[in-house]
Specification:
- Helix 4 packs antiparallel against helix 5.
- The chain is globular and about 50 Å long.
- Strand 1 and strand 2 form a beta hairpin.
- It has two domains: about 90 residues, Helix Hairpins (Orthogonal Bundle), CATH 1.10.287.990; about 100 residues, minor pseudopilin epsh fold, CATH 3.55.40.20.
- By secondary structure, the protein is mainly α.
- The chain starts with a helix and ends with a helix.
- It is about 50% helix and about 10% strand.
- A three-stranded antiparallel sheet has the order 2-1-3.
- The longest helix is centred in the N-terminal third of the chain and has 27 residues.
- Its EC number is 1.15.1.1.
Length: about 230
């Protein structure tokens, strides 16, 4: 996970990953506002993922959509810190939505890399072994992930996750910006919101789901797998 995300609202990250927002009175704790969330820098240029993801999509996705989640998260945190129970209760859904959007996208940018560098190909080492054990093959994982993505009604995400207790891998989908939480650790996420692909792929989202595998940063995914 990026250091930018770790610095911004650390208690929020813990609350989200615990699986649910706290009651309004508890959320008013100043521990939720030790730092402002900030938009993380991308580790590559906007056009670096072409032709698989256009530079225009990446710029809008990062500078506009992710920034909206950052702004909304900070606003919700400020409302909760003010201590009014009624306003804090009203801000709770916004905290979950914008906080989840910030977490999901911060992970997502690190999931990607130019095909000319670390992007694409297949995982190796312990991650490859675990994928073979839990899915049968990498190709099966990719097909199952794309099927899960295609099955999302409306907006959401599909994640390759690791169970912290059993160590097994599986695929999990989440609606809207709900983050992966509880006993599951997110390793690889693919954004199925229209803003992630529509300018380039229009209604052909299945093409986007196929194309994005060419820019998956398996080094990052393997690092999360090993730390989980």
């Amino acid at each position: 996970m990026s250091t930018t995300l770790l610095r911004s609202a650390p208690a929020l990250r813990g609350a989200l990953r615990a699986g649910a927002m706290k009651p309004a009175a508890a959320m008013a704790s100043t521990s939720f506002v030790r730092g402002k969330a900030t938009l993380p820098d991308l580790p590559y240029d906007y056009g670096a993922l072409e032709p698989y993801i256009s530079g225009k999509i990446m710029e809008l996705h990062h500078k506009k959509h992710h920034q909206t989640y950052v702004t909304g998260l900070n606003s919700a945190l400020d409302t909760i810190a003010a201590g009014d129970p009624l306003k804090a209760a009203a801000a709770a859904p916004l905290l979950n939505f914008h906080g989840g959007g910030h977490i999901n996208h911060s992970l997502f940018w690190e999931n990607l890399a130019p095909a000319s560098r670390e992007g694409g190909g297949e995982p190796d080492g312990a991650l490859k072994k675990s994928i073979s054990e839990d899915f049968g093959s990498f190709d099966t994982l990719r097909k199952q992930m794309n099927t899960a993505l295609a099955g999302i009604q409306g907006s959401g995400w599909a994640w390759l996750v690791k169970d912290k207790t059993t160590g097994t891998l599986s695929i999990a989908t989440r609606a809207n910006q709900d983050p992966v939480s509880g006993n599951l650790v997110p390793l690889l996420g693919i954004d199925a919101w229209e803003h992630a692909y529509y300018l380039q792929y229009e209604n052909r989202k299945a093409e986007y789901f196929e194309a994005i595998w060419n820019v998956v940063n398996w080094k990052t995914v393997a690092g999360r797998f090993e730390k989980a």
